[in-house]
Amino acid sequence: MDRDRTDESLIALRRILRATDLYGRDLARDAGLTAVQLRVLQIVAERGRCHPTDVAAQMGVTQATISVLIKKLESWGLIQREQSATDRRQIDLTITPAGLEKVEVAPDALQQRYVRHFEALPDWEQAMVVAVLERVAGMLGAGNFDAAPVLAAGDITRQARGTNGETGHGAPRNGIVPGRNRAQ
Amino acid sequence: MDRDRTDESLIALRRILRATDLYGRDLARDAGLTAVQLRVLQIVAERGRCHPTDVAAQMGVTQATISVLIKKLESWGLIQREQSATDRRQIDLTITPAGLEKVEVAPDALQQRYVRHFEALPDWEQAMVVAVLERVAGMLGAGNFDAAPVLAAGDITRQARGTNGETGHGAPRNGIVPGRNRAQ
DNA sequence: GTAGATTATTCGACTAACTAAATAACATGT
DNA sequence: ACATGTTATTTAGTTAGTCGAATAATCTAC
After folding, report:
1. Contact between residue B51 and residue B92 where contact means Cβ atoms under 8 Å apart
2. For strand D, which residues in window 20-39 of chain A come within 7 Å by CB?
3. Tens of pLDDT along A53-85?
4. B85: CB within 7 A of chain D nucleic strand
5. CB neighbourhood size of A135 (10 A)
6. If B180 and its partner were Cys, which of A67, B32, B85, B175 is the partner (CB 3.0–4.6 Å)?
7. Helix or strand or coil: residue B82?
């Protein structure tokens, strides 16, 4: 019966979402940010040079809200604000290296575990996993904004991989930015 | 090269997470709840008869925080508090039908799209998707609390399936509970 | 060039989430 | 029985996120 199949696949998908959700909540904390702040950062990282209006629209909040979030993130050196050349009312947002590091560091815990298991799979099974995941991503409608401008594949994984286990977070990992306890 | 494979699989996984994340933020709003409130509800739904301490631990907050969240959710009839029989300091939390409805309604938009595509797949491909998703869930460490006590498979999907497209949210969908605009 | 629309920011005010500390009720070990 | 630990709640106070309205700067049409 394919009714059972659909159920099974939904349950498995749910388990995946649940696992990532649990991490997701803690990720921001690990980065010393709130969930909302990290989200702004992620959006800017993905879009690469966008405007406050875009971010506000994508998050479903007003410009006023974004304005103060951006202000904080800029004061921490995580994103950069500069007046647009073409339309001087607008502000061009770009993510800084420090901000990019925050975004990249985030998925660490999840990825490390996953990558370890994945690379232990036999070759044919790896291929199958890739094929299916891409199919599922498509079925979820996640397909469009492919070719992420900033987060290239190598960048995403460079940290999570690498066999030097101890310092999973790369080297510096601390700039000016807030504490890991209280995200002002 | 299996380096490329790992990258590809991570990218696909990322796309899945991104898609669900975008929905995830809006889900709470659709339910007229905040993200945190919905999360409490989800945890109680999964665990089925648990204690505030458990929820607090899982969410990484203090008991005090949970206490007031639970109070609100109870006042809205979404969860039930009753003194434990075995240890009368403890409170047994259970989700109410109304609360369950909130949790189940949530993934609708996502699921409908997914299920539609999934059921259009040829048989062998459905089997493959199920197998891989379960493997991935295991690799992500999502494996343990299987056999969800409350959310049985049928319940999860009964709403999302069914070809009557228009009223995707089932019938009643509105009880006493807060508005969809401002989640007090 | 002037009128009207857009873009971003600031200000004031409100709510949700969170904590620490105090309290109350209950359990447990000795 | 008593001391100690656990569980949940309340209280008071902090912070972050959010909005609406007001403001300033700038673009666009006419």
Report:
1. yes
2. 34-37
3. 999 998 889 999 999 999 999 999 999 999 999
4. no
5. 18
6. B32
7. strand
